[in-house]
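Here is an idea for our session: we take a single protein and study its fold together. To get us started, please write out a protein record for me. Once you have written the record down, we can walk along the chain together.
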Amino acid sequence: MEDGPYKYIRDGNGKVSRVIRIGTRKSQLACIQTDSVAEKLKQLYPDLHLEIIGMTTTGDKILDTALSKIGEKSLFTKELENALERNEVDLVVHSLKDLPTTLPPGFTIGAVLKRENPHDAVVLHPKNAGKTLDTLPENSVIGTSSLRRAAQLKKRFPHLEFKDIRGNLNTRLKKLDEKADFAAIILAAAGLRRMGWENRISQILEPEDCMYAVGQGALAVEVRARDADILEMVSVLHDSETVLRCIAERAFLRQLEGGCSVPVAVHTEVKDTQLYLTGAVYSLDGSDSLKETMQTSIAADDKSLEQVDEPVQRVGVTASKISGEAQDRAERLGVDLANLLLSKGAKEILTVARQLNDAR
C-alpha cells in the first residue's frame, strides 16, 4: 500500500512496516554491490522490508564512446538520482568513484562502506599467462577507458600501447578473451573481487606504477538529505577510516576541479593517527606530472563527536557519528594538497589535458 511518497507492507499478523526501496544500475556488478548493502541492512535491521529496483543509466547505454569524451560527470548516477528525487526509491547504491564531488542539492552520501582493495589490476589475455606489464612484448596493446590509468602507465611502461575499451566488466573481459585486439586490460581490483573473478587478476598495480581514482573500491549509499530516518538507518554502515580517506580524496579532486575527463590520481593511508594523502595530476601521455604527499592528524577527542541537529555535509558526505574535527582535517588536507599542486602548475597540466582530450 502507498501512503504519500512511502510504500508500506502489512504482514500476516497485521503489522505494518515501511518498505525501503533501493535503486541500482542493472549491470551484474552493480546488482552484486547493491545486494551486499541490502544484506548488511537486513542483518542490522531484521524487520526491514527491502525492495531492489534496477535501472539503466546513460553510461550503460552509450557504449561506443570513451567515458572521458562524453564529458558528463553524472553518467552513471543521474537516472538513479532522478528516481530518488521522485520518491520512487529511498536509497541508491553507487561505486563512490562514480559520484561527482559536488552532489545535486537535496542529496547526500549517507554511508561509505569499508573499502575493498582500491588498486588497479592487470588482466592478461590467456595467451600471455605468466607475464607482467614489464615483460609483455614491445607494442602490446593494453585496453583501458581511463585517462588516469593510461597517463600513468604510458610513462611507466613506454614499450606498451594503450587503447580505449568500454563496456561493463563482463563485456570487457569478453572483448579481451575472444578477440586478439588486446594483450591485457586494466580494471579495478575491487570490481573483479566482488564479481568473484579474483583468479583473473594477474598483477595488482602498486602506487609507484599506478595510483588509483578518488573513492575507488568504496561503495556509497546516496539518500535524500531531508530523510533523517533513512540517513540515521544507513549511517551505521559507515566505515570511519574509509570515510576520512575518501573525504580527503574527494576534497582534493573538487579543489582541482577534476572529473572523469582529466588524469588525477590519489593514494591514501592511515598509520597510527596520521592520514597520509598522495595526489597527482598528469598530462595525457604522462610525460608531464606533479605529485606530492601531505599528512594530518585524525586523532579525535571524544568531545568532538558531532551532536548537531543540522547534519553537516563534507564533499557530499554526511557522517554525524564520526568525529567532526577529524572530518574537517581530512577535508582540509585534500584542499591543501590540491592548492600545493595548483601553486606548482597543476592547472596548466589539467587544462592542456582537457583540451587535448576534447580534440581527440
